[in-house]
Specification:
The structure is a homodimer of 514-residue chains. By secondary structure, chain A is of the alpha/beta class. In chain A, 25% of the residues lie in helices and 22% in strands. The mean pLDDT of chain A is 96. The interface between A and B is large, with 60 and 60 residues. Chains A, B: It is found in: Cytoplasm.
């Protein structure tokens, strides 16, 4: 079967549920009712506080074959996932499905547990490092399922992912489970992913290194959702949140891309009083925010809200009155973590409210403009942000396809080539975001507008923007670095890439070894 | 069958589900999973705003036999329930179950719809006025089900009450359904009851008289929960919130009761740094808060939180630093409504978090002291707050049984007699709160401690509190006003009083006409 973006999808995939193939962005309607956790009675004198991870694993009744979840708000500073799985392995429990909101390099030590059968399935937004390489080389029997942030929330809310036990690390918590994003030792800001797990998991375990007096309020996760609380020495390193991200670029190529992107925004018709936007944490993306700020001041245009993935430049715009509200699923740097605690217009939202396509109205639906990155983009505007030029998994689906689908204008910012690797190609290795939801590609060598958007083509003419076709950009890239040899794969499926609605948009195969 | 508080419960009640009889406060464990609403997709360009109540009733698909819900945050100032039912009746829809969080005198105009079959079932915390009289006189075929605030939340969360459509009036809302408790025309503070309906109803309709630009944040009810938004001229009269309540008593009897109650609290062992309490909105109750304030200042004791039912005296204690947090399901006066909007330590909580016995930890479980009222209390400490001395329904179950069960010490404050009617009796007309959850009765003539609480009896000795047995108080009351003739009833069940766990604690029968 071919899906509507031209990818061949097998009729059966071992270790995967019933196949549903991608067709159109809003084609797949949800069926049935939301999932719901078990009912439970907690009596006035009941105690939720347990002494150790081991005790909580026993009390929560973790057994072979169960599904457990985690969040990645600490990104590369997370200690919880490795710590819990170490303990599970020690206790001799096997055949576990892990469903973290994402995995980063710090989690590559899980590879040994994938090899010895402690972990047999992984559902995640992304995976990196040695674990990702091993997966791409076929280490797992069951394919990893890659979901967007909205897609994960949808899968949990619909019951597609049934979480038996959620292990949620939080910077501060009281004895009854009221948990928040800033504590004595760590800070992580929004707990937007964790909030979804807390609502739907059958058993919710809070792990903290700052257990405070009752009641810890305001709370991101609340006592009515929590079964057990465990205090440990250290849940993570907040410095890991910002590693690599939110740098202030001086790279002339990135600055040029940001300038073009800014011109696209300002002339698009969407840049007007009360607009909304989301930008990422990459160099060009952050630079766009800076240029946009100047433009907003000059034209006296204020934004109603920014969405994300909140970064310091957005917090500054909010402080200066240029953005009224910040809606935050995941906080990308320490300054922003401080902001969400003390700033009443910096609102925490959960991942479902952020981007789940199957609830009664998410935030990405209300987004005017989104700036996104790409590892590759093809001449149909399909975007890859998950596999490298060698075919190896090295990224994350994130909110890419969610914001592209929801927003009125999605702009991809990317250099035309990276080293010897073209960004604009005939066919991307892996499709995360379908081209029909991508409106503009901005490179340092020119800007391509999706032909579907005749309105934008019209509005951006004669505005000092070097408009080319995407084929022209592809040819320019090919002229510089040539056309890379296609990657060779076996026919073993190592990952299924789900679109946000749960249909399959692409398959990642095992890389053929030399 | 007799339940454990000695009430004869029929084996079958026409129009009522399977019978479960009350045994012990925490005896009944929940079974199964939480209820969950239908999944739904809202696409980026979908519009939720409809033009009229009539249009929304059609769009939402209201049909004969369905269950609809409302909240009573406007208390006697609510326009929504009457307005929606008027329209439903005009449209010829019949056989509707209404499940408001409570009903007040303003809703007595629904009597005509009970008579003509538009409304055939009522689930509520309370009912008053002509509608209540007619119910007590047998106007309905199916018994009214009386639930506590926690019991209602439990019934909705467990799926026992399945709400097809919730019609929720809110002071302010945006086009996507983000709703809050203060608007241009009205204010109601916490939307604690409405939040439960919004989470579990299949279709959620927001009705507002202040439709503002997106996004209206912070929001009590959020866009992910809302199907339709309707703007009308006026949703209610905020003055109705405070009618009768929160008066500053000068009545010497009430002041004496408050003084004794204060002495009980101060000497109980629970009055210490970090304690928690709830007081009601009656004269004595408010006076207790005033006395307590002096005592807190004198002894330099601060409370961690107050729960409720929040009133101005509590807000003042919070402002003065004597109470750290206020947790608010329902706001009882305009000053408190203003406070919850602007005061970051005045937190809105939903009715489930407040008092649902079948979630993972409600607030009443964490309560040290609660002050409650009574229409009658019997020598087993069972309390009636629902039927008058004539047997007619005239009150509400409210949070009475919830807080009595959850708290470490529940204190009933009541005058020994009211006019010609004794408060302390051998047998109360109707049991709302079982005596085993009631610890102390404070009257102007003396204080009775539940014999079960030997610890309290010991601690309150020799503290200048006139301690009597409850039989002595009953005899004193009988000496003053005599023993009233028993009320005569037919064998028709007009209301079933459920305990908070869903078991039947009492039955209200039709009054025999002269």
């Amino acid at each position: 079967m071919k899906n509507s973006v031209g990818r061949e999808i097998p009729e059966n995939i071992i270790g995967y549920k019933e196949i549903s193939i991608y067709n159109k962005p809003f084609d797949k309607e949800p069926v049935g009712r939301k999932a719901a956790p078990l009912l439970k009675q907690i009596k006035p004198k009941d105690n939720k506080v347990l002494k150790s991870i081991e005790e909580v694993i026993k009390k929560a009744g973790l057994k072979d074959g169960m599904t457990i979840s985690f969040h990645h708000h600490f990104r590369n500073g997370d200690y919880i996932i490795n710590m819990v799985i170490d303990k599970i392995a020690q206790m001799g429990i096997k055949n576990i499905t892990i469903a973290p909101s994402s995995l980063t390099t710090i989690h590559e030590s899980l590879l040994k547990y994938v090899k010895n059968g402690v972990i047999t399935r992984i559902y995640t937004s992304g995976v990196r490092g040695k674990l990702a390489e091993a997966i791409s080389n076929g280490v797992m029997e069951n394919p990893v399922i890659i979901r967007s942030h909205g897609g994960r929330a949808r899968a949990i809310e619909s019951g597609e992912i049934k979480i038996d036990i959620a292990f949620l690390g939080v910077p501060r918590c009281d004895e009854y489970g009221n948990a928040s994003g800033k504590g004595e030792k760590t800070i992580c800001g929004s707990l937007g992913y964790a909030k979804v797990d807390a609502k739907y998991a059958d058993t919710v375990v809070i792990i903290t290194d700052d257990l405070v007096d009752y009641p810890n309020f305001p709370a991101s996760i609340k006592q009515t959702e929590v079964d057990y609380v465990v205090k440990i020495d250290s849940i993570g390193d907040s410095k890991g949140i910002a590693s690599g991200a939110t740098r202030y670029t001086k790279n002339p190529k990135e600055l040029l891309i940001a300038q073009y992107a800014n011109k696209v925004i300002v002339n698009s018709g969407y840049f007007k009083e009360g607009f909304s936007f989301q930008t990422g944490s990459g160099g060009s993306s952050l630079a766009v925010t800076r240029f946009l700020k100047e433009e907003m001041k000059r034209k006296k245009v204020k934004a109603k809200f920014a969405l994300g993935g909140i970064t310091k430049p957005m917090v500054e715009l909010n402080q200066e009155g240029l953005i009224e509200h910040l809606f935050d699923t995941q906080t990308f740097d320490i300054d922003s973590c401080e902001s969400i605690i003390k700033n009443s217009n910096h609102h925490e939202i959960d991942a479902s409210m952020y981007a789940n396509p199957h609830n009664k109205g998410n935030f990405v639906n209300k987004l005017d403009i989104v700036i996104l990155s790409a590892l590759e983009i093809d001449t149909n505007f399909n975007v890859n942000v998950i596999t490298g030029s060698d075919g190896v998994i090295r990224g994350a689906s994130g909110g890419h396809s969610d914001t592209a689908a929801g927003s009125k204008m999605s702009i991809i910012v990317a250099p035309l080539v990276r080293g010897r690797i073209p960004t604009v190609v005939d066919r991307v290795n892996t499709i995360i975001t379908p081209g029909e939801t991508v409106d503009v590609l901005v490179t340092e060598r020119g800007v391509a507008i999706n032909p579907r958007r005749t309105d934008l083509i019209e509005r951006l003419k004669g505005k000092g923007i070097p408009i080319l076709t995407i084929e022209e950009l592809k040819n320019m890239a090919a002229d510089i670095v040539g056309t890379p040899e296609p990657i060779e794969y076996t026919d073993k499926v190592v990952a299924v890439v789900e679109y946000r609605d749960g249909s399959i948009i692409d398959i990642i195969y095992q890389i053929k070894q030399d």
